[in-house]
């Protein structure tokens, strides 16, 4: 199985760029909670050989990689868009918003590598790469930062709303989650627009 490389970063460095930011998000398809973006600048000598798309790595593996990325990155940041913002502006603009909020914290960024998309309202040169989290190390690192951060947020929400099982499904539309929404109704962190477009199971309670 091919793993992400620094090929894109090396190409850009050869053209004079220095702070090349990989960007990715987590939580776009969830029914509850924020969308979270990670932004990471990795040095070429970071030596994190196991980096990959966060979806291909176990929870324990992601935690280990999170520690390595945050320790070895030249810069890293997290940006978020809340469930209220998602309801207000839509998921795609909310993804862009979360990514911009992460990038804006890296003041010396001079090029952006984005998983899948190019971002509006960004003046820094950028490149959107399909399946970038599987091809490019800095984007893979950003996917780890985004996923681990969002999972922690959803586990914290579980303490506030324990009946929904957020610690298990992290807000995604699992059978358990849909059943609990049908039984209890939505809570404050549910995305109301998303719920209006799905068929909930009939509660037997």
Can you walk through the features of this model?
By secondary structure, the protein is of the alpha/beta class. The protein has helices at about 5-15, 60-70, 85-90, 90-105, 135-160, 165-170, 175-185, 190-195, and strands spanning about 20-25, 35-40, 75-80, 110-115, 125-130. A five-stranded mixed sheet has the order 3-2-1-4-5. Strand 1 and strand 2 (about 35-40) form a beta hairpin. Helix 2 crosses helix 5 and helix 3 crosses helix 4. It holds the Pfam family RNase_HII. Its EC number is 3.1.26.4. This is Ribonuclease HII. InterPro entries: RNase_HII (IPR022898), RNase_HII/HIII (IPR001352), RNase_HII/HIII_dom (IPR024567), RNaseH-like_sf (IPR012337), RNaseH_sf (IPR036397).
Topology overview:
Layout: H1 7-14, E1 20-26, E2 35-41, H2 59-72, E3 75-81, H3 83-89, H4 91-103, E4 111-115, E5 126-129, H5 137-160, H6 166-169, H7 175-184, H8 192-195
Parallel strand pairs: 1-4, 4-5
Antiparallel strand pairs: 1-2, 2-3
Helix pairs in contact: 2-5, 3-4
């Amino acid at each position: 199985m091919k793993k992400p490389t620094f090929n894109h970063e090396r190409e850009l460095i050869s053209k004079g760029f220095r702070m090349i930011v990989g960007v990715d998000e987590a939580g776009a398809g969830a029914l509850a909670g924020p969308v979270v973006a990670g932004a990471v600048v990795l040095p070429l000598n970071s030596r994190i050989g196991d980096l990959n798309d966060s979806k291909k790595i176990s929870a324990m593996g992601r935690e280990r990689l999170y520690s390595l990325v945050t320790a070895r990155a030249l810069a890293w940041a997290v940006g978020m868009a809340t469930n209220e913002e998602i309801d207000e502006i839509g998921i795609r603009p909310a993804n862009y918003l979360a990514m911009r909020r992460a990038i804006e914290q890296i003041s010396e960024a001079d090029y952006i590598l984005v998983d899948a998309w190019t971002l509006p309202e960004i003046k820094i040169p950028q490149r959107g790469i399909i399946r970038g989290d599987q091809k490019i190390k800095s984007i893979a690192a950003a996917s780890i930062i985004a996923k681990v951060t969002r999972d922690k947020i959803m586990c914290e929400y579980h303490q506030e709303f324990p009946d929904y099982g957020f610690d298990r499904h992290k807000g995604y539309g699992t059978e358990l989650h849909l059943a609990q929404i049908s039984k209890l109704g939505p809570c404050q962190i549910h995305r109301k627009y998303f719920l209006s477009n799905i068929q909930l199971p009939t509660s037997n309670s």
